[in-house]
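In the current project phase, the collection of sequences with tokenised folds has grown. A representative record is quoted in full directly below:
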Amino acid sequence: MQEAAKITYGGGPTDWFSFGRGERTLVIIPGMSIKPISQSAEAIAASYANFADDYTVYLFGRGRRVRPDCTIETLASDVAEAMDGLGLRGADVFAVSLGGMIALRLTLSRPDLVGALALCSTCAGMDEAGKKETEKWAALADAGDGASLCREMIGVIYSPEFVTDNRGAFDLLENMGEPDDINRIGRLVRAGAGFNAESELGKITCPAFVFGSERDAVLSPAAVRAVAEGIGCGIYMYEGYSHAVYDEAPDFRGRLKAFFDSVR
């Protein structure tokens, strides 16, 4: 695991790490999370161990510094600043959920940074059902109710079977959120609700692929499909998983790497 305090973006030091020893570059842009990504670094590196030989993998979190007026555009600019700071160009980029929105804006505004793009469980503009669900999260965040926020997010992001199998870990997570972490969720929800790039998707020319789940309870499967249709790229929709299919499906990371390998 590697990290360096000298890398900053968004006006201050950031929460980030990298792993792997390969010549290719992969940037992972995560979705919303109660805790900073650095606290999950070892687990993420283990999950994506199949990339470690061929890639050096970078994750840029949003730490505790999400501004009250943040937008998807400013969040994408932060990622671009971090990539510029590390000299990353033409990277493979993988992003999920809110991170997928950030990746779309990054690809549209800085195509030089993105060589290939893979997205999962994301959209180019939230429909009313998605806004209604995530606004529940924002309301709980505004109330400072971290335990209820965790329970609400876990209950819709993951399938019931996955929650049951990992109940102990999720119980611990409910008590981990600091006030700043909880506030950050409300700000990110509103940034996502205000994002819409549906009319711009045709401008994306790099190789791209979209993954999703037919049982996504956060974003509708139709919204996920619309991203692939707008870009004009391939799509694979899973059955039997929820929004976090990227965590649940045992073959997901193999399919993800196969896509990136296919465009090199």
User: Anything to note?
Assistant: The chain has one domain: 8-126+195-262.
